[in-house]
Amino acid sequence: MKTIKYCCRNERHGSKTVYKTLKNEFPDLKQKKKSCLGSCKMCHKQCFVKIGKQNMLCAHTPDELYAELKKLIQEGKKPKKSKSKSKERELLPV
Q1: CA triplet 30, 35, 37: central angle to 5 degrees?
Q2: Terminal CA-CA length for the chain
Q3: pLDDT tens digits, 35-70
Q4: Reduced to 3 states, what is the DSSP secondary structure of residue 19?
Q5: Which residue has the higher pLDDT, 93 or 58?
Q6: Distances (CA, A) of 51 to 6, 32, 72, 89
Q7: CA 20 to 30 Å from 80, out of 40, 52, 65, 69?
């Protein structure tokens, strides 16, 4: 899996707990915190992370985000771009 990037401004939605939990559970996983990822519209609405350079994974709660990230990590696959407008999980190209 590519690097998972977290926006520090998104911590109020719970991304900090996701970062810490994944860091403890998968210490070899590449994760970075950035002061801003430039996705302000998404950042103000819900939890999200950027995977690699082109994909974003969004969820309404930190628990949902963690579950989706864990699933992707365990599958060991690059996330696919999704065109679905699911409220539970969205992968958005940047």
Answers
A1: 75
A2: 17
A3: 998 888 888 889 999 998 888 999 999 999 999 999
A4: helix
A5: 58
A6: 9, 10, 11, 14
A7: 40
Distance from C-alpha of 42 to C-alpha of 46, rounded to nearest angstrom:
6
CA–CA dist 12, 1 (Å, integer): 25
Q: Amino acid identity, residue 22?
A: L
Q: What is the mean pLDDT of residues 66-76?
A: 89
Type of residue at 47:
C
- Say if residues 77 and 48 touch (Cβ distance below 8 Å): no
φ/ψ of residue 58, rounded to 5: -120, 150
Taking phi over 0 as left and psi of -120 to 50 as alpha, with beta for the rest, 44 belongs to: alpha
Separation CA 7–CA 11 (nearest Å): 7
Indicate if the pLDDT at residue 82 is higher than 90: no
**69: part of which helix (H) or strand (E)?**
helix 62-75
Q: Let me know if 77 is exposed, middle or buried by CB neighbors in 10 A (0-12, 13-18, 19+).
A: exposed
